[in-house]
Amino acid sequence: MIGFRSLCAFTLITMTGLACSPAERSDTGDIESAGALDAFAMRVGDCYDDRTLEADEVADVPGVPCSSPHDNEVYAVFDVALEKWPGLARVNEIADEQCLERFPAAIGTSYEESVLYITNLVPTQGSWERGGDREIICVAYHMDLDKLTGSVLGTGM
Is the separation of the CB atoms in 157 and 114 below 8 Å? Predict the structure, then answer.
């Protein structure tokens, strides 16, 4: 991901992608082999690694099985309940507030007591207006940037 890792937003678009095969899912929906994970198809419990980005916009990320060491895990996914584009600043505010609110139920402890930080992926104005994209993806990662192994969901980390 880009720059300083904190409670901040990264935008999604449908252009650029990873030059690798898609991540494969098991019958239960878990990622079972590493590969490109479509940002528009991310689910709670999906794990992925960071990658260097040329811009603040991504279409896919390097998905990996959660049993393998990884950088990030999706812990919540929700849609913004607004029709008209409210501006990127407002979308980021909604994402920050709602991801923080969803953290304790997903992880099993308060954000203040956790060793995890959070970030999020938000729609761009273009994906909002042309594609109807309203999805916010809440992501957890270790505050020391240590690799995670196994799912963080319900662990109380």
Answer: yes
